[in-house]
Design brief:
17 strands, alpha+beta, five-stranded mixed beta sheet
Length: 401
Amino acid sequence: MTTLRVLLAQTPAPDREEPWALFDARGRVIREGRAVPSGWPAASRREAVLGASAVRIVDLKLPPMSEDRVGAAAAYALEDQLAGPAHDQHIAVAALGRDGHVQACVASRTLVASLAAQFSRVIAEPALAPLPPETHWRWFASDASGGFVRQPGGGAFAVSSLNSDADLPAELAWSLAHAKRSGTPAGAVEVAFGIDAVALSRCEETSRVPFRRVESWRWIDTAPPVFAAATDLLQHEFARVPRVTARASVRTFGTPAMVVLAALGLHVIATLGHWGWLRVDEWRTARAIAAVAHSAGIDAPEGESAAALLARRHAGARHRAGLAAPGDALPLLASIAPALAALPERALKMAVYADGHWTFEFGKLDAAAVVEFEQRVAAAGLSTLQATTAAGMRMRVTQAL
């Protein structure tokens, strides 16, 4: 089986050449070149490698949570770091590490949608590059355009190419200065592409940070396990769900295995039965909510939409009567107040109310304090969404429906 990987910074165009490489079943490069799409070699599988100028990787620290919540928590943590409207950005996350760190890849939703129609997988070029040592940054050149810098935690950002005057790219100069102001300066910048001594010295003088040459790297130099482990950007609405057909011969199992399979089968049947009962109960609840909404003159679909419209109707009625609704700023804050009062002194840095929810910015909190706060908020009938920030933690609290 062969795999064609194409390095792209934008949607392929019929008349634009793009770098490509053809890999064999063991992950070795058979051929490479540049060609328009019609000139790409045939392969069993096609993958797109998103150039550094079209994707950013952010290293996030999240509190303990289930895997199905990581995507929403990452999007919330990045809310104020996105360039442009949030709905125009696509965020794909890697697996959550045991230490709570996760890498989030941010790219244009339109670009990812166009690539999803042509490729079976989309990965980020910076995710293939080796990580630098602790406190160091590593600067790579991209075969697509410009270059990128990778940081020890796994984050990566795009930079312009080094110009003929050997001036440090503005993106790198600003990031180095920002890191120094934030108290996390880069110990050195490792340059993983050809650069002469004059340019290296000029970069050091401009940034006042040591610059060192290291072995050059290109995306096709990536080892097969690294390609396999790279985060696939085709997540959420772009996810591929392969159909897997299990085939096994019962005759290959002995008596002990058959007993285990029988027990497993009974467990699966019991689980499915319980799941079915829960689904029926959920359906009945949804029908009841929809019936109440209909009797109130609200034509709404079953489930949460009807509940939300009923809550909105209830809030409107109370407002017309000169009363506060549960989701208004002061009643909602009153429900949260006992949990806030139990936090350490000066833990709360900022609170903002908008669209029926409070957003709180906290300083550094230990894990026990966070868990206790969440439990108190949940006991008050409220729902939360939280994410770790550089300064501490951000939490959004809303009235649970």
